[in-house]
Amino acid sequence: MNVLDTTEQKVSEKVSEKVSAPLDTERGSGDTLLARFGRWWGRKGEGEPQAPAAKPVAPEAIALSPRVLRRQREQLRQCFDARLTDGAANAAAQAWRQEYEAAGEAARQAMLGVLAEVAAPGSEAATVHASLSQALSNARIRFFKRLAALHGQHGDSVCGLHFLIHLRADMLRWHKRIPGLRALDDDLEALFSNWFDVGLLELQPITWDSPASLLEKLIRYEAVHEISSWTDLRNRLDSDRRCYAFFHPRIPREPLIFVEVAFVPEMAANVQALLDELAPLEDLRRVKWAIFYSISNTQAGLRGVSFGNFLLKRVIEELQREFPKLKQFATLSPIPGFADWLRRQDAAAVAGMLGEKRLARWTERHGDAPADGAAWFAALAPDSADAVVRDTALTLAAHYLVREQKDGLPADAVARFHLGNGACVERLNWGADLSRKGRAQGGGMMVNYLYVPDALDDNLARLGAGNPRVSRAVGKLL
Predict the structure, then answer these.
(1) What's the predicted TM-score (pTM) here?
(2) Which domains does the chain carry?
(3) Residue 418 a catalytic site member
């Protein structure tokens, strides 16, 4: 069965969850690997370090001419009104896609505005009728299915499914500017949750001998720990490491997710040590742990889309086929939302999480407690050797990961992913990532999520009941 042949009823019932990074344009294939990477790192190293540039502001949508507006409305109505197999509707969808791909940002915003208008109900009062709402949703789904089934007009054109990924990336960027995009995005996200379920994806190992274009994408997409040099890349693909990529069969040249794994004798607590290029190779006959230290989602248009609950289980099964005696699996994961969350807390909220005893220890050692969450974050220096500072920070991080929720799921995106894959919050690590990014986002802390293959289903059920699995050590911090 074609992976796009999914029922509209199933689509409407999918629940979504998850992460991603934008894609740069791919270079030509004539360059050698060394030349291409040389230019890449040369550009990265040029000049003195500079402050991050301000994000470019997207131009406002232009006003389409009356003639273009009429034509686009007619094209889209034909797509929405006709049956799925109607040839004229498919031709109209192809024409709309070609015009969209050729347009600049301002024109694309205008086209999305017309799409949202045509896809919307005729009046607000009509939306109270469930049957009309469902009919409109089905029409939107048919439109997206048309686009997914289409191929570009040229050999180098992306397939229809990849075009939809780019289309949704634009929708996510501009949904606050364009009324009506939310309903379109909800339907497209639900479709993607079916089409990109982990059971439909292909898992492939990435090695030093993989094609240069694929290795270059690993560098570009690495969203957790930047690959800083040629030696760094080689280290991550050495004999005591593994790297895997998930692909969709309709987009065989475009990796969707990269998973990087290190084999170590004990559960890793520090990413600097894990990525040390001078560290000796681990003896694979003696290693006891497989550590997932980087999981990068590559497509901005797949943000928030669930790949299914057992994505890492696929990787674990692959590792166990290669190493039958390997039994222990964990992550060394960042806590990217911790700093922003803590800065939003007031003094009373922080005091409630710390409790009287921890707060008393703080005031005894450091005097008056900080005035609010932002002051607390500033006081918790990531490289401090003070046990009170360490215990305070770990306690607040535990509350954030386990207790803080959004829509009934963990508020932290990484926690949401791993707990949604059946993991347990096993251990919090102080001073685990002292990079600029690690300090700024997670206060230098990282967390181990433990994966026990036989416990994944039970842990997932506990998460659904609002009681995520945590270790005894983490439980003592709550």
Answers:
(1) 0.81
(2) 66-122+129-196 (1.20.140.90), 199-326 (3.40.630.150), 337-477 (3.40.630.150)
(3) yes
